[in-house]
Each structure stands twice: as structure tokens, then as C-alpha cells.
Amino acid sequence: MDYLIAVLGGYLLGSIPFGLVLTRMAGLGDIRQVGSGNIGATNVLRTGRKDVALATLVLDAAKAAAALVLARHFFSADAGMLAGAAALLGHCFPIWLKFKGGKGVATFFGTLLVGSWPVGVLAGALWLATAFTFRYSSLGALVASAAAPLLAVVFQASPIGIGATLFMSVLVWIRHRENLSRLIKGEEPKIGKK
User: Fold this and answer.
1) Which of 44, 122, 139, 157 has its CA 20 to 30 A from that of 147?
2) Mean pLDDT across the stretch 22-26?
3) Which residues contact 51 (CB under 8 A, 6 or more apart)?
């Protein structure tokens, strides 16, 4: 029952579409009609408002962190990881938006940094190194998410923690399938490219 409450609570927190809410509050219209139509920080940045994009990034990470901290406080560390993973699921498939959400990178890192900070820091370093070496943000996300379950094993996470991290990694890859296809074809836009 504890795990069920943690998962449901995490999913509902993760479903809060901060990108959509913040862009509307800023008078930028419906973010789903801009660029890729995604509700995440990368697409919010396409509006030209870096402040709104940064706020989206922080809040998308914070909602997963909050879900994890609350479940860990009231139940257990494993329940916390399940809540964080459920928050990622909620972000990617929010009930409020007919299950059409973001790609989950910020929410993924929010869970990792609070759930196991060494895993989060190393995965974040991999993302940065890959993204800035090859100039593809999506490639950085794919590399970091692929490495995260292995890092969870190295840092001796519990079986549930490893399973939750693996679930999140697979979900990030699923949400980036179009990016992966463009990377393979050499059509993915590079960081900074107009």
C-alpha cells in the first residue's frame, strides 16, 4: 500500500505541466503550438524567454525531487525512488494533457540527484560532456540515461532503486526515439543551431 500511494502521488505531481502553465502566465500562449509542441524546457526556450525556460527546467526537476522526498519521508527510500520514477512517467504522459507530455530529462535528473546524488552528478557530467563534445543535447540525454542504471549498480542502490532507474532510463529512450532516428540519419539539429 505504501508503494501504491507513493506511485500515485508521484505520478500526479509529475503530471503538473509547468512548461504549459508558465508560458501561459508569461503571455506566450500555448507551448504545444510552438516548435516541437513539447511541454519541456527545451521547447519553452524556443519562445525566446530564457527565464521561463529556466523556471520550467527547475520546476520539472523539483516536482520529481518533491515526490521522492515526500515518499521517502513518510514511507521508505525505495518508496521514494518509485515516487520519483512515477513522477517521470507523469511528466511524459500527464493525465491533464491527454497523456501528451515532455521527454523527461529534467524530471529524470531531479529524481537521480535527490535519490542518489553520486549517480545524479555523474550522469549529469556525462550529459554535459557528451552534449558539449558532440553538440547534441539529445545524445547527451541518451548517454546519461543509459549509464544511470549501471551507476546505480556501482553505487550499490537497492534492487528497487536499480529497477526504478532502469525504468526511467528506458522511458527517456522511448521519449527520444525521434531524436535517435534523426541522430542516425544525421538530421538532428546541433546545440546553438538556428
Assistant:
1) 44
2) 93
3) none
